[in-house]
Sequence to fold (268 residues):
Amino acid sequence: MGTIYDRAGGKTDVPHRHEYYTVLFVEKANGKHIVDYKAFPFEELEVHFVSPGQVHQVALSERPNGWVFTFSKDFLVENNIPEGFISNINLFKPFGDTPALKVDRETFDRLLRIVQEMEDCMPRELTYRSRALGALLQLFLIFCNNSLALDAKQLDEENAAVCILRDFKHLVDTRYSEWHRVNHYASEMHITAKHLSQMVKNLTGKSAKEVILDRLLLEAKRLLLHTGLTVKEVAYQIGFDEPLHFSGFFKKKAGRSPSQFREESKFQ
Fold:
């Protein structure tokens, strides 16, 4: 992180998105990490996780001490790491709140040793380099997962409700612009809308409908701030037949109209 800071001359990067996973492993930093328009102040001994497609920005007031590493979905496939593993550890969240994971010094030192092993495995002449990095990546994420204060049932890969939630989130993230109703997802998953809503509510505290609307709002914000699309074009892009309905939805969820949101965000 310090090297990246030096290369940028200490300047804050612009909000951007990647099509790969990003991990910020922070020992000490002052500033904030903005993920999908929510700011999370940097603190000591923490790990930040950014999913593909999320808009993020690192704003630092001084040179940090930490590490950044990234990996792609192709890397997971090449190293026989199922995407289900990434979903079930509940560290990377494509949408919704993404606060940093706080760890104690013992856990941080353990994670640091893994990162140092990753650095040792970077030379391309190393035999089975990719497999070694894949194994270390899983080990790093497993130790992070063990630091989460989550109900164990949310991490049980054999739990039927967890499987339903994982599949629902994946569907929402890929079909949100086509399907706005809970019954669309329930039908695709071959369960009732009532059962789907109950499972999602039990595990997340949010209704299935809220999850869908949150994803629509997030994409609308991304398009308004990072494309030149008109409000009408944004509405059509995320599946609204009537721009007026989109504007009403956006104002109800965000507290201001799409145009106001776009204009006010220019000065933040």
Summary: Residues 208-226 form the longest helix (19 residues).
